[in-house]
Amino acid sequence: MFARGSWRWSLPVLITLSVLSGTETGVLVRDTLAEAYLQVSVFVAATLMLLYGIENRFSVDLESRLANAGRAQVPLAAGLGLLPGCGGAIVVVTQFVNGRIGFGALVAVLIATMGDAAFLLIAAAPGTAGVVLGVSLVCAVLGGWAVDAIHGPGYMRPEARADGAAAPSARGRVESRPWLDRGWFALWAAGMPLAVAIAFQQDPNAWFGPLSEYEPATWLGFAGAMLALLMWAARVGGTAPAGLMQERSSALANPGHGMAVERPVQGHGLLALATRASPDTNFVTVWVIVAFLLFELSIAFTGTDPSAWFNIAAPLMPLMGVLVGFIPGCGPQILLATLYLSGVVPMSTLLANAISNDGDALFPALALTPRAALLATLYSAVPALMVGYSAFALGY
């Protein structure tokens, strides 16, 4: 359990030592992990579980449908990317990593996804959210088709395994620990209502009355993030209890080998769905934690005010929206959406950012296919600049 990939343990160890130090930095690290879990991981898991549940309920393989969709891959990928949060986009990235969809679909999903900033916009300004998401969807479909027309469907696509079997290599194998899977599910279930409250700009700590001063919601988020880190470091979790459902090798835990190993589907319980979703969720959680920590600690140590980035000439604001969109993760994008709602930045900047930002779906793409991820991100800047400056010219 501990011998393979011992370097992975450095991250949870350093985080634990920091939090136990009792310093301001330790509190910041704890709060950042809680934010990563409650703002990202919970929704990633929920989206994956929803898609897996649809597969089981209607006896369809959404991944195979997507892989065999031909030109419809691009609009299907864009539709998955449009789902608030990053779970749908991560499903598409997973399929690209496994060589089952084209580069145009990857570009489309990165253009369409707005990540967790979509929750904030839907809650605070649903009319604006409809416009932004609609424009993003159109840009995603047209952009994805354009990329496929220019490069062809096989451009930069990783080679898929012909046999569709999971790899036997221990490098990516995720072992079963049912008691950990149950604990993971319990924390997710407890965190879901807290995460929804945060998405709608509420403080769930206030729900606990006299206990709110102890920040129980924050500690639960921290516990969920740490469990995800530990399961990722130990490579455990993700194998469904015997006879419950189809067993799949995690595509992100086993890059290039995320195909199904068939077993009879005899149950569709939430625990089985959560168990299947946990390895990919844990993988994304690690990347999100690293990005959140780099962002928050750099601001804390340099004293930078991110809102000051937009104290620039008005014609440069759409460009700044695109550049902020290049930053992986949802934190900067949520900040920009907040600045729009506060009247600090115009609609043109929000549109440019929504199209160029890739949310947390960029993390697994960067980890597993960095060249394709970077090129797809650059391609997303083209419609972002076009739409942003068109809106700016129209006075928005």
UniProtKB/TrEMBL annotation:
Q: Does the keyword Transmembrane apply?
A: yes
Q: Which residues cross the membrane?
A: 6-29, 36-54, 74-94, 101-123, 129-147, 183-200, 220-238, 283-302, 308-327, 334-352, 372-394
Alphabetized UniProt keyword annotations: Membrane, Transmembrane, Transmembrane helix
Keyword set includes Transmembrane helix: yes
Q: Which InterPro entries match?
A: ArsP_2
Give the protein name, as stated in the record. Answer: Manganese transporter
- Identify the species of origin: Salinisphaera aquimarina
